Amino acid sequence: MDCTLPAVAEELLKEIKKAFEETSHVPDDLLLGLKFIFGPSAVPALDLVDQHSVTRVVAPSGRIAYQVLGSSGKLYTCYSSCHFCTCPAFGFTVLQKSESLLCKHILAVYLSQAMGACQELTVSEEQLTSILLAEEEEEG
């Protein structure tokens, strides 16, 4: 299942990527757009990117997950392909209340992709499975 963000959010992220590639920073007008579209998640997500808190975890099969070290020190697993995060804020604010498009962790994933700020970690299939199952055990 491949979900997409609303077109305006997708376009904003593309513009951020383009601007960052050209100038190595994000212009104020795009930062304002980020705040307008993503609301209170925008600034904390940018902080996570600045702290290099996003790690792209890749297995030999090509399966990819992202781990984001949250401001609380807890590690959350995010799936950009379906816009999902294991944090409580995602479950409550995004899924239950529909108050936000994304949590700060997933937004940090998208921003770190746009800015080339993801750390890379290659793991075995078994290690990736353990990461994914550890999240399930914590939830259940």
TrEMBL record:
Q: Which UniProt keywords apply?
A: Metal-binding, Zinc, Zinc-finger
- Which parts of the sequence belong to the SWIM-type domain? 76-114
Any one biological process term the GO annotation gives = double-strand break repair via homologous recombination
Any one GO CC term of the record = Shu complex
One family name in Pfam for this protein: SWIM
Entry keyword annotation includes Transcription regulation: no
Superkingdom of this protein's organism = Eukaryota
Q: Does the keyword Zinc-finger apply?
A: yes
Question: Which InterPro entries does this entry report, sorted A to Z?
Answer: Znf_SWIM
- Molecular function via GO: zinc ion binding
PANTHER family per the UniProt record, alphabetical: ZINC FINGER SWIM DOMAIN-CONTAINING PROTEIN 7
Q: What is the name attached to this protein's record?
A: ZSWM7 protein
Instruction: Tell me what organism the protein belongs to.
Output: Eubucco bourcierii (red-headed barbet)
Its gene is Zswim7
